[in-house]
Amino acid sequence: MLQAGRYHTLRVVKHVDFGLYLDGGDGDEILLPKRFVPRDAREGDEIDVFIYHDTEGRPIATTQKPFGAVGDILSMRVKDKNEHGAFLDWGLMKDLFLPLSQQRSPIRVGGNYLVYIYEDEMTGRIAATEHIGRYISNENLTVAEGDEVDLIVWRETDLGYAVIINNKHEGLVHFNEVFKELAPGD
User: Which of the four, 88, 90, 100, 127, has the lowest number of CB atoms within 10 Å?
Assistant: First the structure.
């Protein structure tokens, strides 16, 4: 099943003046706009694309690489905001929405905020949240002592820096183990 907010390899179904239609499965076709079409693309070829929703809620494909996909935790810059929420620079032509209800801190344009990218269950659209704690857990660890891991600084605590491990778990790096100043998102 085709999921928004993720990468897919899709087969070219047909050329049109404004791009390509890709096989989205179950008879659905997904538009890859002309500006993102590889030069040598032909019907039957498979293309790696990222799927998201256009401004009207329709699934659309791009060969652009966003800064993150569904399930990723990363620091993103606020491009704009209004009374409904903030718009984050996602690396795509369309910004990623951070609803007001998903904000924990005062948001300012130009600021960077640590967010989790998720698919909204009600709308199916991709959005961001600062409520990261509900998406990480140490209940079933997928890492062991000595494993190499990816860390993202989450917040400063009395003992050190709370970190997110591999986008899945919470950990702590003690102040005496850090030799430079860190900030959320590092």
Answer: 100
What pTM value is reported for the model?
0.87
User: How many other CB atoms are there within 10 angstroms of residue 142's CB atom?
Assistant: 10
Q: What is the dihedral of CA 172, 175, 181, 183, to 10 degrees?
A: 30
pLDDT in tens, 56-105: 888 899 999 999 999 999 999 999 999 999 999 999 988 999 999 999 98
86 and 94 in contact (C-beta within 8 Å)? Answer: no
Per the structure block, which two tokens stand in for 176?
């005496």
End-to-end distance of the chain based on CA atoms, in angstroms? Answer: 34
Of 93, 28, 38, nearest in space to 66 by CA: 93
Query: DSSP secondary structure string, 10-75?
Result: EEEEEEETTEEEEEEETTEEEEEEGGG--TT--TT-EEEEEEEE-TTS-EEEESS--S--TT-EEE
Provide the Cα torsion 49, 53, 58, 62; round to 10°.
Answer: -20
**96: its two tokens:** 């990623």
**CB contact at 8 A, 107 and 113:** yes
Query: Which of 8, 134, 4, 132 is closest to 74 using CA atoms?
Result: 132
Contact criterion met (CB below 8 Å) for 126 and 120: yes
The sheet with strand 151-156 has its strands ordered as 151-156, 160-165, 169-174
